[in-house]
Specification:
Layout (H helix, E strand, L loop, with lengths): L1 E5 H11 L14 E7 L2 E7 L3 E8 L1 E4 L1 E6 H9 L6 E7 L2 E6 L6 E7 L16 E4 H9 L16 E7 L2 E7 L3 E7 L11 E4 H10 L5 E7 L2 E6 L2 E6 L8 H4 L6 E6 H11 L9 E7 L2 E8 L2 E7 L2 E2 L4 E6 H9 L5 E6 L6 E6 L4 E5 L5
Antiparallel strand pairs: 1-5, 1-7, 2-3, 2-6, 3-4, 4-17, 6-9, 7-8, 8-9, 10-15, 11-12, 11-14, 12-13, 13-26, 15-16, 16-17, 18-22, 18-24, 19-20, 19-23, 20-21, 24-25, 25-26
Helix pairs in contact: 1-2, 6-7
Length: 367
């Protein structure tokens, strides 16, 4: 095998591919990337068994062929070569040789493994795909994925649940103590698809490859999620398990609403967090007509901060995990938001003002 290509174009693709390889075992074939060179096209493939990547770049094919090489090693080499030069790659005697295509200032050899040992990868059928806008999709991911569980024993909660319900695409994430939900109508018709729990790795890989402009294609079939994005094909094993009934967690209505300035609340939480006991992470809200007193305490002292609010209702004291509160408010893309509740012991909702298509739910802590 022998071909010539730009260092920059290959480095970009190998930078994507490395995220789909096995990291813990350098001896595994799945730590390698497959290079297939023919008809002036180089196809780059990588997989860890659960996730897969296929990318293509234009090259000058001299001798067609294929091989595999340790992805991380190849990426490290390319990172240390000037991006604006052209490289010549040749494979012989189980070595991939890399040199400048115009001179012989350097020569690098990397051990290869036959492409015949590379595992089979998932294939895709174009008819099974639907298109969806990148910008809206990634915004939905951003507003939900932060709330997934980190507890591997509850594996079905470590991903983002996605379904089509009525005329809306729904994304939900929860760890059992908080929940983030977006229900969005898209301009183009989204067909009904199999409800699926998508891994955060799959979603972050999409975000890495995507530009955020235009559309991409998705499909959910045979326990896998597939995507065509920016000329790349990727897939991921769908997380198995029965996702909880998220609609039962979201109150149908709230009896009390407290309108707050988003940046003022974030500033108050940031200040108070310095004096919060790190094990419980408990922050207190004392809400009345005059404002909200935000407070916290630990063994070294306490802190209080009063911010303005628009509230009509009885005085109430609420307590939260401040991390849950802070992370949710950061996702609110409006100057004001409503903190909604029915009682100090029931689920609290955070909604943008004016209300949009997303809601964050936080379960209170004992005051």
């Amino acid at each position: 095998m022998k071909f010539i290509c730009s260092c920059e174009s290959l480095k970009k693709e190998i930078g994507y591919a490395i995220n789909f390889t096995t990291k813990r075992n350098a001896l595994a074939i799945t730590s390698n990337v497959l290079l297939e060179n023919q008809n002036n096209i180089l196809t780059i493939k990588s997989t860890d068994g659960k996730n897969g990547f296929v990318g293509r770049i234009e090259v000058e094919t001299i001798i067609p062929g294929s091989t595999t090489v340790i992805c991380e090693k190849l990426f490290d080499v390319l990172k240390n070569i000037s991006s604006d030069i052209s490289l010549e790659f040749s494979e012989e005697n189980e070595k991939l040789s890399i040199k400048n295509s115009t001179d012989s200032k350097f020569l690098i050899n990397i051990r290869t493994i036959s492409s015949e040992k590379f595992p089979d990868m998932q294939e895709f059928v174009e008819d099974d795909y639907f298109t969806i806008g990148q910008s809206d999709f990634f915004d939905m991911v951003d507003k939900t994925s932060f709330a997934v569980s980190r507890d591997e024993s509850r594996y079905f909660l470590t991903g983002v649940y996605m379904e089509k319900k009525d005329d809306k695409v729904v994304m939900v994430a929860t760890d059992g103590k908080r929940l983030a939900c977006v229900k969005r109508v898209f301009e183009n018709e989204i067909p009904t698809f199999t409800p699926s729990i998508l891994s955060t790795q799959f979603l972050s890989n999409l975000r890495m490859i995507g530009s955020g402009d235009g559309v991409m294609s998705l499909a959910f079939k045979n326990s896998y999620a597939y995507a065509n994005i920016e000329g790349h094909f990727i897939y991921s094993l769908i997380i198995t398990g029965n996702y909880p009934n998220y609609e039962r967690v979201i109150p149908k209505e709230f009896s009390s609403r407290c309108r707050l300035n988003t940046s003022d609340m974030l500033d108050a939480i940031n200040l108070i967090s310095v004096m919060i006991e790190m094990k419980s992470k408990k922050i207190f809200f004392d809400i009345n007509h005059d404002g909200v007193m935000v407070s916290g305490e630990d063994n070294d002292g306490d802190s209080k901060n009063i911010i303005k609010c628009d509230y009509e209702g009885p005085e109430v004291k609420l307590s939260f995990n401040y991390n849950f509160l802070q992370e949710s408010i950061k996702k609110i893309d409006s100057e004001e938001f409503n903190l909604c509740f029915n009682s100090s012991n029931s689920a609290i909702g955070l909604l943008s003002e004016p209300e949009k298509d997303y809601i964050f739910i936080i379960m209170p802590m004992q005051a």
